[in-house]
Each structure stands twice: as C-alpha cells, then as structure tokens.
Amino acid sequence: MVDFAGAHAIVTGGSSGIGLSVGRQLAERGCRVSLIARRQELLDDAAGRLTASGHQVRAMSVDVADRVAVTSSIAGLVAEFGPCDILVTSAGVVEPGYFSTLHDDVFRTTMEIDYFGTLWPIRAVVPSMVERRSGSIVGVSSGAGLVGVFGYSAYSPPKFAVRGLLEVLRCELAPHGIHVGCACPPDTDTPQLAYENQFKPAETAAISGTIKPLSADRVAASIVRGIDKRQFLIAPDVQTRVLARVAGLVPGALHTMFDRQVRKAQSR
Questions:
Q1: Domains of the chain: residue spans and CATH
Q2: What is the model's pLDDT at position 60?
Q3: Which of 155, 156, 200, 208 is catalytic?
Q4: What are 219-229's pLDDT values in tens digits?
Q5: Which residues of the chain have pLDDT under 70?
Q6: Gyration radius of the chain over CA positions
Q7: From 15, 141, 153, 156, active-site residue
Q8: Which of 181, 241, 249, 260 counts the most CB atoms within 10 A of its CB?
C-alpha cells in the first residue's frame, strides 16, 4: 500500500485528459503534484483549478521528447517538492492512418514522444527511488500496445515498446522496493481521441467502434488504484483485461475478428 499523504507525484501529459485526471485524483489523496506538459496555457489553467481547490500543485512546460529539458525540469520540481515518490507518464500522441500514406515524420515523432517521452522521465527519477528503496512508476501504454490494430502502424510500436520497457523495469526494480505498473487503456474520451477521430481510417473506426470510450476519470481511477495495490498490468475495464489474456494465449482469434471487421468496413 502507498502512503499518498505528502507524497510528491509527477505526472507527464498533465494538462488534459488522463494525465490531468490522474493529477487531480492524486492531489485529492493528499499528494503534492507536479504537472508536466508542452502547452503552457493549458498547464496554467489545470494547475490553477487544482490550486484553487486547495491542492499543492506545480506546473512545468516541457517537451517530454527532450531528454535534457526533462531531466532539468524534474530536478527543479524535486528541489521544490522533494524527491519523486510517484511518477505517471501519460504524455503521448497518436495519428492513425494507412501505413503507405503516413509521412515518415509521423513515425519518428510518435516514437520520440510516446516511447522516449516515457523513458526520459523514468531515467530521471529511478536513481533516487533506488537510493530510497521506495517509489511507484506507472507508464501509460494502450490497448494498442497489447495487440497490433489496423491503422496504428505509427502508434502501436511505441506503445509495445513502452510495455516492454516496463516489463523489464518491473523485474529490475522490484528488488529495490519500487513498484512498476503498465496502464493499458482502451479508447478514452479525451481531446486526443477527438483529434484522432478526424483521421481514423474506416477500418480502424470499425474495430475501435465496438468499444465505447471510457471516461478519463475512470482510467485515472484505475491507475491510482493500481499504484495503491502495486499492480503491474492496469486494465481499467473487463474488455481490456480479456484482451490482455487473449493476445498472449490465442492471438489468432483476435486476428480473425479484426480481419472480419476490416473486410466489412472495406465492403461499405
């Protein structure tokens, strides 16, 4: 069990969506919260609302793909709020599309933000956690990090990489008393999903359309609960938990189902 009261929690992607909801819920548990994101205006608004509710919050505008900036910013937040006790890496981007038509830059940018934007904050906080033999790290992967999905050729690989990184870190950091979790949310009702839906191929929409998007609050609650219970796989709904099992045991069944949905979408 984690003692949230007085803990310093750092949340990337904290200006909106899942990250902001995680930051709010951790603050309500008594954490001092540091929010990291790129857009200063959204950050200021998010931090202002949390501060107005009586929470201790700091915000830092950082590009999580920039290792030097991430390391420096986290050092500054630690100097003010103390060592990081909880890190949640929620920053990410997704631009769906057909593999043959996506621009090369989309693949590189998505990997830089989704994978390296997860790696650099973890690299910044792990030494202190190891020294103190305590801490919790949760990276946000995706349902598309459990199984490859049509239209996500730029998005699924970084999310698979995030899951792989966290599986290794779970093994390496457990002897030091550090919890590592991997959150795999399905489609979540966030500004990112609204942006993504503008570009989804019909086949991708046919697959993802079978699942109603979850609220950011519900996904965030599963992450906070996962920290509290020191879970590795954090799946916010039954369907994602089933997906995690089926993807590992009988991936062919998923391929058959996806192929059927793709054929139906293309026939229309």
A1: 8-267 (3.40.50.720)
A2: 96
A3: 155
A4: 999 999 999 99
A5: 1, 209-210, 247-258, 262
A6: 18
A7: 141
A8: 181
Q: CA 260 → CA 48, 139, 186, 248, distances in Å?
A: 48, 32, 20, 20
78 residue type, one letter = V
Cα–Cα distance measured from residue 176 to residue 131, given in angstroms and rounded to the nearest whole number: 8
Residue in the structure block whose two tokens are 């049509």: 150
- Helices then strands, counting H and E runs in the chain, come out as 11, 9
115-142: per-residue pLDDT in tens? 999 999 999 999 999 999 999 999 999 9
Question: Residue 159 catalytic?
Answer: yes
Which tokens is 28 given? Answer: 């309500």
Residues shown for the chain? 268
**Tokens of residue 102, six digits:** 């996506």
> Of these residues, 16, 142, 159, 208, which one is catalytic?
159
Q: Which two tokens stand for residue 6?
A: 């007085």
Catalytic, 141? Answer yes
